[in-house]
Fold this sequence. Notes:
Blueprint: H1 5-8, H2 10-40, H3 44-66, H4 73-85, H5 100-116, H6 122-143, H7 153-183, H8 185-192, E1 199-213, H9 215-222, H10 225-245, E2 249-254, E3 257-264, H11 275-295, E4 300-316, E5 321-326, H12 329-339, E6 346-349, H13 350-356, E7 360-364, E8 376-382
Parallel strand pairs: 4-6
Antiparallel strand pairs: 1-3, 1-4, 2-3, 4-5, 6-8, 7-8
Helix pairs in contact: 2-3, 2-5, 3-4, 4-5, 4-6, 5-6, 5-7, 6-7, 10-11
Amino acid sequence: MIISGDYKDHFQRRVDTFKKLYSANAVLMLIIILTEYYRLSFIPYVMLVLVFKTVVMIGIMGYIFSKNSSIGFQVIGILYSAIAGMQADLFTDENTPFNFDLFTLQTGLLVISTLAFTGLSSLYGILGSIWVLVCYFITFISKVSFNYTYFYLAPFVFFGIILNGIIQDHYESEKEMVRLINYYKEYSIQLITNHLPKRFHVMNVTSLYVDISAIFSYYYKEQSLGLVKKILKDLYKEFEMDRKHFNIDTSDEDRGFYSFLVYENPAGTDMGYADALAEFAIRIRNSFEHLCKERNINFRLRMGMDSGKLVDYIYEDKNSLLTVFKSLKVMEKAREMEHEGMNGQIQVTSDSYALLKKNFVLVKRDISITEQDKSVYILKEKRGS
């Protein structure tokens, strides 16, 4: 994995997000301060509160827009929550004109901004909103004993919590991506500094392709579709039991053709990984011959096998981009081996031969049917069996 431009800029995007959130907070706070000034500017000590809130808000915005990192933003969020709770009505007496609905609306908006638009974690966001609500109730109690307007705050609280969760989930997903990138950082640096090759395969595979022929000849002879189905069902059942026994995977990605597969992941770690597939091929060949002899049928079986890379990468200098792709060439070559093979035999390429020759008996064919004049072999049996 390469640290691409998108994720190199993760931290800067985080800072830019804070700037956008606090720009929204600054606009909201400015509107509230102007509203309070319009209603309560005739009270001298309220003017001091408004001046204090304005100065602190200007300081917060100055700090936010002068930073290129997110260090200290939690402290700034707590400071903003503190001044958000200090609404001017808190500092007035019971004889000062008081608008219940307007005060509740202001408080609801401040709760949303404290929870969602400060970048605080869920815990600190809730604590900040509790401070805003405490100041709200202190003000209300000093003005009236009870009012149903209290309950109008509930939707604001729930909406703020939902927004906080959405923002925090997004941030956590980005942090997880950064952790993943850091995990591969050394590998990425090696690629970028040319310490690893530009092209490298990371997973190998050996593929076995199986074909059963002469089915239609048997059907025309016996004129019994039910009998053919029963024989094939018994064969497939036997194949499936052996496949599970040897822990063989299957694939039909090769343009609709069905293959049996074993993997070496990562590449170059297990030269004997193809042995299980070879044993599986020998087992189903023997089972097939036994079943055909037992039921006096003349079905024919051919198998082809090839080995090579499955997952590959190419590294591009220009864009510092790592492209990972999956190849189907091995499955196609195994199908070619089967198509050009002999009835009752397991024909393998030279690549598979290199993996199997230590533990299996293979006989070289006198013909070459692949590109570059490579030899092909017939897999006979496991050594010592």
